[in-house]
Amino acid sequence: MFRELVRIKQQMPMEDCIELLKNETRGVLSVLGDDDYPYGTPINHYYDEESGKIYFHIGSQRSHRTDAIRKHDKVSLCVYDQGWRKDGEWALNVKSVIVFGRIAIVEDEERIIDITSKLTRKFTLDQEYLEKELKNNLHRTWLLELTPEHISGKFVNES
After folding, report:
1. Do 75 and 44 meet the contact criterion of CB atoms below 8 Å apart?
2. pLDDT of residue 61
3. Cα atoms found within 13 Å of the Cα of residue 84, Cβ hemisphere only
4. Of 46, 59, 67, 123, which is the most buried if we count CB atoms within 10 A?
5. Which portions of the chain are predicted below pLDDT 70?
6. What is the pLDDT of residue 59?
7. Alpha-carbon distances of 157 from 9, 77, 84, 154, rounded to whole Å
8. Burial class (CB in 10 A: 0-12, 13-18, 19+), 67
9. Complete domains list, the chain, with CATH
10. Counting beta carbons within 10 angstroms of the beta carbon of residue 16, is it exposed (0 to 12), middle (13 to 18) or buried (19 or more)?
């Protein structure tokens, strides 16, 4: 059902894919948008090791992305690191992970608070900020849960 990597030597082990999903803060979430055009947007995410699911916090329930998700639950997520260069080389070395899966809206308020708090802690440990955000914005918070169906990663040297 899902394609295998063509350049098998560049394939990352699954544990490296999970580490990238856990540690990187942003990726590009792609949905099937208007008139069946792909629509990808940068987004913050939280990878939950226990469940293997990926979560996204969205502040607006009215957007191109949310309309697309309501119509079609299949999505892809691309997460990649900042890359690095070996001394004396111009080429960038990059690790990336692609996740294919289905996305759903989380409606349970306790789970929304729990996951949103974990996602926020990837960026700041400021508890006062977190409490203020939950108090002021919980009623309009949209939490999405991506259940992966296929994960693959690769290491690329851009030379």
Report:
1. no
2. 67
3. 4
4. 46
5. 59-62
6. 66
7. 12, 21, 10, 10
8. middle
9. 9-157 (2.30.110.10)
10. middle
